[in-house]
Structure formats: structure tokens, C-alpha cells
Amino acid sequence: MAKRADDQGRSESGGRSDDQMTPAPSWKAAWPFLVALGLVVVAAVGISISYLIRPADDRMSTEAHIQHAVNDVYTARNELDYTRYREATCAAELASDSFPDEDTFVEQNRVSFEENGQIVIPEISEIDVNGDRATAQVHWHFDETPDSEQVTDVVVVREDGDWKVCTS
């Protein structure tokens, strides 16, 4: 039996082809995808809420806190900010007879800045934490002399939950 051109798309039994017989998808087939989407949304909302409730300082690692303490001291020197410098320095250092007063601090750092430029810290490495005490190597140079990098060992201690730079 030969097929005519107008019979294309019909099977020999006269019904529809397989493409035309597939049923429309039901909502039951979509449930696994909807449940997975719901779980992803709940997880994303939970993570977002935890970031909003928990301060950024609590989410940082101990090493990051130490790096911030070291950066605070050097930034205070660059900005001639005595208050910030004091806040980033440990209590033993503040009580020391050799700790500079504000005028001395500003004058020493202004002279250094005028002669050499700002202090730049490209790296803080070899952070070794032992309880509430840590050491780190600060790689630094002056703006005006980037090729003469120096490495300074720095002691950092935790006081009242905050890391502070100390000389020993």
C-alpha cells in the first residue's frame, strides 16, 4: 500500500505518530526539581543570615587577624595617626618608657615619610601562632626605594580578644 503525500505524519493504522502521542508533562514530574530548588534557596538564605549576624572579624582566620594588626601599625605610621598606632600596640609596649609620645611619633614618622615616602608591605609571611602570642615576618620597603626590601620579625599578642603588635 503506497502512502500519499497528505498521509505523512500518520501511521499505517491511521493514528498519530510517536512525536504527537507524548503526554504533556505533569507537575508530579517537576517535584524533584522544585524540592532541590527549595533546598538551594533555604541554604542560600541561611548562609546570608549567618554573614549578616556574625561580624566579619569573627569570620576571619587567626592569621588574617594578625596581618590586620601588623597592617594597622604600619598604616598608622604612614598616616601619622597616633591614636590608631596606640590602639594597635600591646599594653606592655604602651607602658614602656621608650614608647613615644604623640609629638615624637608624628615628628619621627613625618621625617621618615618626607625622606623615603610611605611604608609599603607587599607580604607578611611565616606567621607562627602559639596560643595568645604569634610571630610574623613583615616584608616591607619605602615607596621611594622599592628595590631595598627589608624583613622585620614582629611579635603580636592577643589582648582582650584583639591582636596587638609588641616589641617582645
UniProtKB/TrEMBL annotation:
The chain crosses the membrane at residues 29-53. InterPro entries: NTF2-like_dom_sf. Residues 1-23 are annotated as: Disordered. Signal peptide: none annotated. Keywords: Membrane, Transmembrane, Transmembrane helix. Residues 1-19 have a biased composition (Basic and acidic residues). This is DUF4878 domain-containing protein. It comes from Gordonia mangrovi.
